[in-house]
């Protein structure tokens, strides 16, 4: 392999491993569910993308073969990570709204202000179909 390919692979593997480590550490250490979403959806996704790119370069430089597997994995990862994070955030906000949120090992979740400062958080009102304020 050429020295440029070797250096590129080493940089991408170290960058990918660093992002994956930081993302995993953030998943464990951040205090609330909403903050914990950033670890796996942002940093770990970028880390895995860098590792897969290093794999593409390695197999091209070593065997002279272009593989599509890594590109498909990256595409699947970059499509599904934001969608799953959005769904987890919506469930979290729904549980906060209905009062079914339980405190985990990280402590209680932050409460929104009375003005409803979260983009998709709206306090339940009496007489609405999803309201638990009637009970």
From TrEMBL:
Region (Disordered): 100-135
One Gene Ontology MF term: sodium:proton antiporter activity
UniProt KW Ligase keyword: no
UniProt keyword terms in alphabetical order: Membrane, Transmembrane, Transmembrane helix
One Pfam family recorded for the sequence: PhaG_MnhG_YufB
Chain ranges passing through the membrane: 6-28, 40-59, 71-89
Entry superkingdom: Bacteria
InterPro entries: PhaG_MnhG_YufB
Listed PANTHER family: ANTIPORTER SUBUNIT MNHG2-RELATED
NCBIfam families reported for this sequence: CPA3_mnhG_phaG, PRK12674.1-5
Annotated protein name in UniProt: Multisubunit potassium/proton antiporter, PhaG subunit
Species: Sphingomonas carotinifaciens
């Amino acid at each position: 392999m050429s020295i440029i390919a070797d250096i590129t692979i080493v940089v991408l593997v170290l960058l990918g491993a660093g992002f994956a480590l930081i993302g995993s550490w953030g998943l464990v250490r951040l205090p609330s569910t909403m903050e914990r979403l950033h670890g796996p959806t942002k940093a770990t996704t970028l880390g895995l993308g860098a590792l897969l790119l290093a794999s593409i370069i390695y197999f091209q430089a070593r065997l002279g073969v272009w593989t599509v597997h890594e590109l498909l994995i990256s595409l699947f990862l970059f499509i599904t990570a934001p969608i799953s994070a959005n769904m987890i955030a919506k469930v979290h906000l729904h549980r906060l709204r209905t009062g079914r949120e339980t405190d985990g090992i990280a402590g209680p979740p932050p409460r929104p202000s009375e003005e409803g400062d979260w983009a998709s958080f709206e306090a339940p009102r009496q007489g609405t179909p999803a309201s638990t304020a009637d009970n």
